[in-house]
Design goal:
The complex is a heterodimer. Chain A is of the alpha/beta class. Chain A contains five helices and ten strands. In chain A, helix 2 links the parallel strand 1 and strand 2. Chain B has a single domain, classed as Glutaconate Coenzyme A-transferase (3-Layer(aba) Sandwich), CATH 3.40.1080. In chain B, 17% of the residues lie in helices and 29% in strands. The chains are: A alpha/beta, B alpha/beta. Chains A and B meet through helix 4 and helix 5 of A and helix 3 and helix 4 of B.
């Protein structure tokens, strides 16, 4: 619901009126918050998400045919992104079997249990909100703001990060790095 | 006692020491307020938290720690946070002992519809499909009827959440389980008769020999 979204980057996208976007995210937050700002500004063409219930504007634009919405179970969505970032050809999940989610998908049986083949998802750009970043781009995330962030940082051609604090190299202990520096392309400097 | 309190209290009696429990939004959330004294459970928020504590009052709110509905919460000592891939690995992988969810309809086989009303309400399934598919035990917390119509129906007319049946339904009138795939009345609420439950239930209901009264 906007938690863990890089608001500063979203605001800049709105200012530059970067339209025709396809958004992959858990939800579209609320009007005026996070991705909700992009939706209200009419910049979004397609949404791939698990939940749009708290944003009536997304639902309205969907019913008007202005936004295409692909609803994906949350656990499937994160695994599809993970597959995209980890070089996998897809994942097999029992979630959605016997529901409308299975329509048009391959079913694969393994040891007597039926799974859906869910295909990988990747993006041109990942917009990541971190807690700490060092000058090289090593990242940590705060509490539940981690959510999709380390997973999307693996699954895009270009990774742009907004961090609450930028710290010198060496300040983040190696075993606390959640996203290693080579994954990060750009770090937003503020002030 | 109001309907929601009856439901939440009865479900809280299903909690056992050390369980990992995921509560949905709405009536299920109230279960956390009725945990039996001396029983310690871990609540999971599927956005990436084990050890969810009470919602904080204004002034103590810290926006970096929220539940799955985006509400600022506290974390109990011993809590842990992680990314969404691990959180749903916990759910799908059978590590969650119990999930309590709301429902639009439950049918007499125990199949659940709780995520959309075609043409009217399309919020999305969020984590519901993974929870029903993967949790060890699924309990539904809901009012018995909506606008005078039974929510326990012969067959769900709304899109299903999972092909896996739920284990138990608790309403303000009754406790219903699904042994051998058929809705079976186990308990009635205080002051509610078997006939009252039958009259409020559209689905076929097996009535066992030993119906007890909810001990609230």
């Amino acid at each position: 619901m906007g938690v863990g979204t890089p608001e500063a980057i979203i605001d800049e996208l709105c200012r530059q009126q970067r339209g025709d976007l396809t958004i992959i995210a858990n939800d579209t937050a609320m009007p005026g918050v996070g991705i909700g700002k992009l939706v209200s500004a009419g910049l979004v063409r397609k949404v791939i998400a698990s939940h749009i219930g708290l944003n009536p504007e997304t639902q309205r634009q969907m019913l008007d045919g202005r936004i295409e919405v692909e609803l994906v179970p949350q656990g499937t969505l994160i695994e599809r992104i993970r597959a995209g970032g980890h070089g996998l050809g897809g994942i097999l999940t029992p979630t959605g079997v016997g529901t409308v989610v299975e329509e048009g998908k391959r079913k694969i049986e393994v040891d007597g249990r039926t799974y859906l083949l869910e295909l990988p998802l990747r993006a041109d750009v990942a917009l990541v909100q971190a807690f700490l970043a060092d000058y090289l781009g090593n990242l940590t995330y705060a509490l539940t703001m981690r959510n999709f962030n380390p997973v999307i940082a693996m699954a895009a051609d270009r990774v742009i990060v907004d961090a609450e604090h930028i710290v010198p190299v060496g300040m983040i202990p190696p075993d606390q790095v959640m996203t290693p520096a080579p994954l990060v392309d750009c770090l937003i400097a503020k002030g | 006692m109001d309907a929601q309190t009856i439901i939440a209290r009865r479900i809280a009696q299903e909690l056992r020491e050390g369980m990992l429990v995921n509560l949905g939004i709405g009536i299920p959330t109230l279960v956390a307020s009725h945990v039996p004294q001396g029983t310690n459970v871990f609540f999971q928020s599927e956005n990436g938290l084990i050890g969810t504590g009470p919602v904080l009052e204004d002034g103590l709110v810290q926006s970096r720690l929220t539940d799955a509905g985006g509400r600022p919460v506290s974390a109990i000592p011993g809590a842990s946070t992680f990314d969404s891939a691990m959180s749903f690995g916990l759910i799908r992988g059978g590590h969650v002992d119990l999930t309590v969810l709301g429902a639009l309809q439950v049918d007499e086989r125990g199949l659940l519809a709780n995520w959309m009303i075609p043409g009217k309400m399309v919020p999305g399934m969020g984590g519901a499909m993974d929870l029903v598919t993967g949790a060890k035990r699924v309990i539904i917390a809901m009012q018995h009827t909506a606008k005078g119509k039974s929510k326990i129906v012969p067959r769900c007319t709304l899109p299903l959440t999972s092909s896996r049946p739920v284990d138990m339904v608790v309403t303000e009138l009754a406790v219903i389980a699904f042994p051998s795939g058929q809705a079976t009345l186990l308990e009635t609420a205080p002051g509610v008769s078997v006939e009252d439950v039958r009259a409020a239930t559209e689905a076929r209901l097996v009535v066992g020999a030993n119906i007890t009264t909810m001990a609230l």
